[in-house]
Amino acid sequence: MNSLIQLFLDLLPIIWLIISLGVFKMPAVRATSIGLALTVLLSILGGKLTVTKTFLGALDGAIMGLIVISYVVVAALFAYNSASYSGNMRVIQNALSHVSTDPRILVLLVCWAFGAFLESVAGFGIAVAIPAGILISFNIKPIKASVISLLANTATTSFGAVGLPVITLADVTKLNSQTLAIFVSLQLLLLCILVPFLLVLLVDSSFKELKKIWYYPLTAGLVYGIVQLVVSYLLGPELPTIVASLATLIALIMLAQRKNKSSVKQEKHTLTEIAVATAPFILIFSLVLVTSPLFPQINNFLNNFQISFQIYPGQDNGQTFSYLVSPGTIILLSAIIGGLVQKVSLQEQLKILILTLKSVWKTIITVCAIVALAKVMDYSGMTTTLATSLVKGLGPIYPLFAPIIGAIGSFATGSNTSSNVLFGDLQLSAAKNLGVNKYWLVASNMAGSTAGNMLSPQSIAVATTGVKLEGKEGIILKDALKWAGLYLGVICIFLYLIGLIFGMIRL
């Protein structure tokens, strides 16, 4: 009985987040702050950590949330807001809309490829809101446009915001980020191929019509999935989605021009206008590439500029911030230079940055609170207790359900990154207890979280805002549920069977 009570108490912070965010629809900043306070009390009153260690653990997590996650979020949104202010996001959107008149092909271009690109450089719901709004201009009904955008923003989210979810997962679990990126890409390969077909079916539910254009979703899925895997293998977690989305865009445009020449409208923007519009994003791609391990001399030199510190006592608990190669620094620098190219003055950029900070201060607090909560759970042993109980209860079939845990995390928090922070260590502990490949099981949390994100209240709220359907969240959730269930079911079964076949897990 005591062990059951202890398990319930250790689960309480997670239960609170699920109920407060998913049921009570409480604002995330309030729910996560209360969740952190609850976790701190459980740690102290339960005798797990001293008061000092508990608060040091929370501070350690808050600072990690600030310099690893929030910095990237602010920089990415600043880049997007600056491009929107100058009118250049509209140039990119217009250029895409002139490739084809077939709504099924446009969905692949706008939601799958362009949406993935937005996710790669910004994330934060932009990849749902913007494509959903564009689809309405193509005469796709608002609710359908929302569900399509939510489904498209699943398999493409793992490397969003210049690889932030995977980088954070690697930081939390102390695993190699490049190896982890490879495992994540492998696990999502089937979903990358499947989702474009589902998107086409969502536009037109006729399998007969799908047969007529099957090569479009196949091209979109294969190009994206394979390029993402290759870039993960060669460069690590920062560039896979950027390169894969651009490669998919190019492949689809070339295919559309070849197969549907008569439907392609005359381009309204010159190459110079498009080059200027994409300048910040080209710079992000270029700087991430040049500072990556692909150029070891540059990478090693820049990594010498770092800040190392330790807040929570104990071996391997220190933090290192390589500020020159941080995705946040790269995005911020690219946005500033790109903004100047787009004739946005430094004074205007400063105003945009201030407005961006004002718009996301609640998100920054939320991120810091959720990471602090996860760190206290980890340092106090709550995470280990949960992992041990789950492994004991499920035994060797635990890996079958591991993605569901990731999905619960992203559903509750609306963020793959937050899900990884919450459950990354739990999956690692479970892998150690089961004696299975730790990279495979930890990566499955990332794979599962891509499904839960589709149903999270935050994602659905963003989708309804993008199509001006505030108050219709319940209808969209109902329509999205069956697709998310199918997606998650495929992940669980596929990863379990492949894991058994290749010896990553065992019976």
UniProtKB/TrEMBL annotation:
Tree of life domain: Bacteria
Transmembrane segments: 7-24, 30-51, 63-85, 105-138, 150-168, 180-202, 214-235, 241-258, 270-295, 321-341, 353-377, 397-414, 484-505
GO CC annotations, alphabetized: plasma membrane
Membrane topology according to the record: Multi-pass membrane protein
Keywords per UniProt: Cell membrane, Membrane, Transmembrane, Transmembrane helix, Transport
Function: Uptake of L-lactate across the membrane. Can also transport D-lactate and glycolate.
Stated name of the protein: L-lactate permease
Origin species: Lactobacillus mulieris
